[in-house]
Amino acid sequence: MSRQSLKWSRLDNAAKIFPSTSSKQDPKVFRFACELCEPVDPEVLRRALGRTLEKFPPFRSVLRRGLFWYFLEQSDLVPEVSEESSPPCSPLYNPRRRGLLFAVTYYRCRINLEVYHALTDGSGALQFLRALVYDYLLLRHPDAFTHSPSALDFDASRSEREDDSFRKHYVPERKGRGEKAPRAYHMKGALLPGGRIRVVEGSLPVGAAAAKAKELGVSMTVFLTAVLLTAVAGEMPARERSRRPVVAAVPVNLRNYFESESVRNFFGVFTAGYHFQNGWAFDEVLAAVKASFARELTADRLARRMNRLAALEHNPVIRVMPLAVKDPVLRLSGWIAARGETTSLSNLGRITMPAACAPFIRAFDVFISARRLQMCMCSYGDRLMLSLTSPFVSTDVPKRFFRILTGMGLPVEISSNPVSEE
Questions:
Q1: Which domain of life is it from (predicted)?
Q2: Helix pair 122-140, 42-55: axis angle to 10 deg
Q3: Residue 363 in 3-state DSSP?
Q4: How far apart are alpha carbons 287 and 279 in whole angstroms?
């Protein structure tokens, strides 16, 4: 493919901050994984990846630096499929090397998809992995699909998948001042070497977690956010509890509120927190989190937040500002936003696959690179996966989080990746 014929596109609004704020310690990479019931066949996986890429053109892009903005450029690079050999969520974007922004690896029965956040969000990456697993199983077990031609429930056109939904739904409005968030408590401690992360995963029955949330009168996400805030507070120094609230950033899939089939970024973020100087009663923490979700999760509130962020992109002064000046401004903006957040919780929801795939899939899970404690959750079938990632040597907060759940009678199976602390 000649350089003249290469197609380029602007980064979407949410993606613009990632190239400026990525680092070895915070590479902005997340991983989806699918655990099969049998060892992965690498050659079949390579063929399946070729098929899947034809349906997801944006994934063939590389990130390039322009005079005013970073942008995505379509490439003719061929992705490799290799056995997993690097630490999870290692950096994918290297400004000195022209490379794809995703990687597919395998290990025993597991297929891994790692993605740089400037390319897509969790929902877009999940659609890609679902298609990849479907194509793999279709090639690996063609007889199983002979009498069940069901396909994935994601049939967006090419233009819909490439759509910049932030630009599509942006509505200029009178500039208003956003609410100033209080400075949140930040965890401290010895860091793992080399920018590595520790992943502590808990697996439990979906039904048991849903029943507990229903008993408490809240959604599962509200319930687990309250547990996470309480676990962090349990490890806070006493003097900090009177000074700072514990705050969780909660990403929201905007496709659930605005029409979009894009596989690019289309998410918003709100916060839910609690100041533990007010007490430790779990029902009070739960009530505060529930109130935050009810207040923030409305189309109107999300649209106002989305338009406020998008307005910066449309500001004529910022648009003509050279990228060399924008980079430090965006890094400062990211630092200011992070001051108001202690941790984060991302719920990717229930993952579904065609019935013909069910006999071959054991589980899905997801986690993200971490400069602070982060939690991701998803479910498949009857299993709920809760993955906590952290750059810290200490595992006290994840341990406390799962002890709270088991103390409520929930049966949790825990696993962790081995990480050298030297």
A1: Bacteria
A2: 130
A3: strand
A4: 13
DSSP 92-128: ---TTS--BSEEEEEETTEEEEEEETTT--HHHHHHH
0.85 exceeded by pTM: yes
Model confidence pLDDT, tens digit, residues 161-219: 777 888 788 777 655 555 677 899 999 999 999 889 999 999 999 999 999 999 999 99
pLDDT tens digits for range 288-347:
999 999 999 999 999 988 887 776 666 777 777 888 888 888 888 888 888 999 999 999
Residue that has been written with the tokens 């969780």 in this structure: 248
Q: Decide: helix, strand or coil at residue 369.
A: coil
Report how far residue 181's alpha carbon sits from residue 216's, in angstroms, rounded to the nearest whole number.
28
SS3 call for 390: strand
Residue 49 has pLDDT above 70, yes or no: yes
- Domains in the chain (CATH in brackets) are 3-142 (3.30.559.10), 193-351+370-416 (3.30.559.30)
pLDDT for 177 equals: 56
Cβ atoms of residues 254 and 260 within 8 Å? yes
| Nearest-10 crossing angle of helices 220-234, 282-296 | 130
CA distances in angstroms from 384 to 154, 179, 224, 374, listed in the order given: 23, 34, 12, 17
CA angle (127 as vertex; 16, 220 as ends), nearest 5: 90
